[in-house]
Amino acid sequence: MRGPPPEPRLAAHVYGHQAAIQQFEESFASGRLHHAWLISGPSGVGKVTLAFHLARRLLGGSDLESPAGRRISAGTHGDLLTIARKMDPRKGQLKGEITVADVQPIQNFLHHTATEGGWRVVVVDGLESLNRFAANALLKILEEPPPKTALFLTTSSPGTLLPTLRSRCRVLALAGLDEADMKAVLPDVPDDVLHRAHGSPGRALFLAQDRDGICAGLVERALAGEELDHENWVIVSQIAREAEGFALVCDLLGEALAGQARDAAFAGDLPRAALMADRAGRLGQMRLQSECFSLDRAEAIREVLALARQG
Fold this sequence. Notes:
- It comes from Bombella apis.
- This is DNA polymerase III subunit delta.
- InterPro entries: DNA_Rep/Repair_Clamp_Loader (IPR050238), P-loop_NTPase (IPR027417).
- Helix 4 packs parallel to helix 5.
- The protein starts with 17 loop residues before the first helix and ends with a helix.
- The protein has 14 helices and 7 strands.
- By secondary structure, the chain is of the alpha/beta class.
- The chain has 2 domains: about 170 residues, P-loop containing nucleotide triphosphate hydrolases (Rossmann fold, 3-Layer(aba) Sandwich); about 100 residues.
- Helices cover about 50% and strands about 10% of the residues.
């Protein structure tokens, strides 16, 4: 069996997204390459992989075995800077936002001469995670970029960004991968999981963590209004011990509630559609609060399942 796809920095190939690559190549060939590219699309669809692919193109590292290619893979290329959420050592998880202190190194990086005499490239992973101060700091950088500078900014939520920030970027909007590309990326993931992932390899890997369907079964019983017995509470405790257990339950339940809201709307039952949409929104708030404040995972799972059982 093959392992999971390589991390974005190490990927030798981009599956799908050929239209986006073509747009970039045409701009590059024209000699008037835009300085900022906003790569948007669903979570796990390959936005950061594409960003590094384009960065390699500018830095002469498309061949992973070339000197520049090896430096990019190792994270030691002097003309490539990556900004993303950092780990919180106290909580052992990623911080909830990218701060102005995280963004400030971009200014110094771009105003130094390129170490290899060519382009300077910045990849910002998760633009929606920038807090207000960080977003304003990045906006100032985008307003007056130095020559031969390229910024690749990824986001799953373009609608949440500052309009002034979006307006200074050229957008590459990515759709989900087709069936053939999904199977090429993840040949060992079952077809039913690939189908539920809606063209997102990252989501398929996430869903595949529910190897025995334990989380899915728990959510299904809660949605049916069943009161969970002692055996099921033991399962809740087991899920809570898994790193992504709580997130999986929330994801599966959120998808089900959104589907119920959509089905009710199509059927003309607007009150039920509004009710299900409200519950999906409340679920999102509960998930955010639990993750931000490191609440007890087992208790958090019990609370979201109680939300599902409300009918």
